[in-house]
């Protein structure tokens, strides 16, 4: 029993001594650098463009395609890192490469062999919005 009491006393003394020791101070920085997510350094942009109302980005993270879609009118990102895939071509004369996100909405980001870019949004109610990229 004496050993346990001694151990408790020793732990208490060490804890009090730790609290009484002066704590190191660090100079405060006058500039702050926002943290950069580790994933941002490993993302590879595949396609990025803006239309009149949307900003669209398709990128690869860890071997998987992802999509972001930002609605500039409402200031809302409604697809944020959503999974994406390469959509099949519509025929042998189709020169568009299409990336599709299927979730609450369907979002297509397209680029053709001439470098034209297009965004298509299929809304929940079935309405389609198609906009060309603006430079």
Supply the key terms.
single chain; 4-stranded antiparallel β-sheet; alpha+beta; 2 helices; 44% strand
Task: Give an overview of the whole structure.
The chain is an alpha+beta fold and 135 residues long. It has a domain at 43-132. Helices cover 18% and strands 44% of the residues. It is built from two helices and nine strands; from the N terminus they run H-H-E-E-E-E-E-E-E-E-E. It has helices spanning 2-20, 38-42, and strands at residues 44-50, 54-61, 64-71, 76-83, 85-87, 96-102, 106-112, 117-122, 128-132. The strands form two sheets. The chain has a five-stranded antiparallel β-sheet with strand order 5-6-7-8-9, with no helix packed on it. A four-stranded antiparallel β-sheet has the order 1-2-3-4. Strand 3 (64-71) and strand 4 (76-83) form a beta hairpin. The chain is elongated and about 90 Å long. The chain starts with a helix and ends with a strand. Residues 23-33 have low confidence and may be disordered.
Biggest pleated sheet: 5 strands, antiparallel
User: Approximately what portion of the residues adopt beta-strand conformation?
Assistant: 35-45%
Secondary-structure element order, N to C:
HHEEEEEEEEE
Distance linking N and C termini: 81 Å
Strand order of the largest sheet: 5-6-7-8-9
Computed structural class: alpha+beta
**Helical percent range?**
10-25%
Oligomeric status: single chain
Shape by Cα distribution = elongated
How large is the count of helical segments?
A: 2
Q: Provide the gyration radius in Å.
A: 27 Å
Low-confidence stretches: 23-33
Q: Mean pLDDT, rounded to whole units?
A: 81
Beta strands, count:
9
């Amino acid at each position: 029993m004496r050993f346990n009491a001694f151990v408790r006393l020793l732990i208490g003394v060490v804890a009090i001594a730790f609290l009484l020791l002066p704590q190191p101070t660090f100079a405060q920085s006058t500039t702050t650098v926002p943290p950069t997510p580790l994933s941002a350094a490993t993302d590879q942009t595949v396609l990025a463009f803006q239309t009149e109302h949307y900003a669209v980005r398709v990128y690869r993270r860890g071997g998987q395609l992802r999509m972001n879609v930002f609605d500039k009118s409402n200031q809302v990102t409604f697809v944020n890192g959503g999974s994406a895939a390469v959509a099949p071509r519509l025929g042998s004369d189709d020169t568009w490469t299409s990336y599709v996100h299927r979730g609450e909405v369907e979002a297509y980001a397209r680029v053709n062999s001439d470098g034209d870019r297009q965004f298509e949004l299929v809304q929940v109610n079935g309405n389609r919005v198609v906009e060309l990229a603006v430079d």
